[in-house]
Amino acid sequence: MGLVVFLICVVAAFNVVGTLTMVVRDKTREIGILMAMGMQRSRIRRVFLIQGVFIGLVGTALGTVLGLVLGASVNRGHLIPIDPSIYFIDHLPVLTNPLDALAVVAASLVIATLAPLYPSLQAARLDPVRAIRYE
Amino acid sequence: MNALVVARGIRKVFAGGDGQPLEVLRGVDVEARRGEFVAIVGSSGAGKSTLLHLLGALDTPTGGDIWLDGSRYADLDARGAAELRNRKLGFVFQFHHLLREFSALENVMMPLLIGGASPRKARSRAEEVLSDVGLAGRMTHRPAELSGGEQQRCAVARALVHDPNVVLADEPSGNLDHANAERLHEIFFRLAREYETAVVVVTHNRQLAGRADRVLLLEDGRLTTVSSVDAIP
User: What pTM was computed for the model?
Assistant: First the structure.
């Protein structure tokens, strides 16, 4: 179970890094323009950090709510029927362990904080002259 | 020294495609005084834009020194250079380079907001300058909703909104038709005089160069003063 959660978290981290790297690439010229107008590199870094953390927070919140609702619905509506002559029960139950849920939420929040670090550093390190000329 | 921006012995060497060093600027001296309009002309690839980037503290020279209003660029760290760009420099690029997600008004407010001005103060000043460039009725429009001439006038407003000491313009009318270019030059000249801003403009446009106080020719990595635009080869 722990391994599955770990792998899901790794995939999520790659998604955040990939999305933000694409955003940095897409906004390269704009970053150069802001630098030409005197925006500090630390502020540019912060913009992308905040965006990454925001994506992570929204994803964690949505994932938590959807997971709990889906689990409860599966239990209440007996949505996954199984053969009772083999398994002794007529539906597959979902066991929601609060500690597991908390661990997943905590891991997601850690990823949301760490994953945007690299793309935001990339954005802040751009050379303004190259960035302005970027097509 | 009453010049606002002074560059002495500027050299810039790039690594060429064949690995050999390519010396684009070979000891360039240039200065601009308050309210002065300096045009830099030269063939494509002569290093005009490179010189402008160096004067704008966007790039560092291989040799030589640049001062702006007493600040020596070599003494500034990245934070100091960014502050200098924000407070004392304005840029106009050939392709307007407005931020596409923001309205004309928000684009013009941007240098002031970056500098820490309150949104109300920034808005009021941006509205004033946009009116000065004839865009009072287009403030809420995004760049894509403006014509080429309007986009460049908006870029001029953005370059002047924070009362910079020096505006650096790279082919500001290079992408415009004759009528729009003429209108942009008119506005640019009038506002630069009004705001007592030194303007260094890189251009191929003889008409614009002809209106400058001084015309400098960049050739073989060196700047020479040209007596008139007719003397430009």
Answer: 0.84
